Amino acid sequence: MANVLIADDSREFSTILKEYVEKEGYSVFIAGDGRKALEIFSANELDMVFLDVNMPVMNGYDVCREIRKKSNVPVIMITSHGDDYEKIMGLGIGADDYVVKPCSPGEVIARMRAILRRIYFEHSTEQNGRKIQIDNLEIDIDNFKVCIDKKEVLLTKREMEILWTLAENADRVFTRENLLNSLWGYDYYGDCRTVDSHIKRLRAKLDEFPHENWNIKTVWGMGYKFEVNVV
Question: Does the model's pTM come out above 0.85?
Fold first, then answer.
């Protein structure tokens, strides 16, 4: 299970954010001061770090500097001050984003998703040129091309993004909210039925070709997943 560190001296804020992060499928560590945050960082492999700027013992800026000496783990700074110089300072020492309190946990999670999605696609580019092949399905997102049995399937940009996201995470269930926030962005206020409409059109195009070994499956009461039977 992937790990997230929440370092904030507000127990109430940490507890609320922890609940939201855990719903995303992450294991959560909590630190109430900067020194404890660095101890947890040193002892565990982390996928995301939330750092409060004004923590006791060691502030968030100093913690971020120490983290950046050893790791490129995504860091989101959290503060009660929205001054531009503080944001510039935080980003300048290596933070990936900056959130000002009061903020909704939903917004913080959306920012986390956006950063992890960007890093994920960058990693995919380094590893395989952003190409996926599963059985007779080939997805080349850089060249905006999908083929089944070497025959091209014409998809829209959004359909391509949905297929890529599901196929790259085969057998992982994505809720409609996951897909909506990940692909449309945290500032999109659309209806989750938007996802259903795109999935329906995507399936119709894929179903024009044989694909008995894989499929986009509806997980009732939850969402969708890319199911692979034989690879």
Answer: no
| Per-residue model confidence as pLDDT tens digits over 192-212 | 677 888 899 999 999 999 998
CA atoms of 37 and 16, how far apart (whole Å): 18
User: Which architecture characterizes domain 3-113 according to CATH?
Assistant: 3-Layer(aba) Sandwich (3.40)
Q: What is the CATH number of domain 129-228?
A: 1.10.10.10
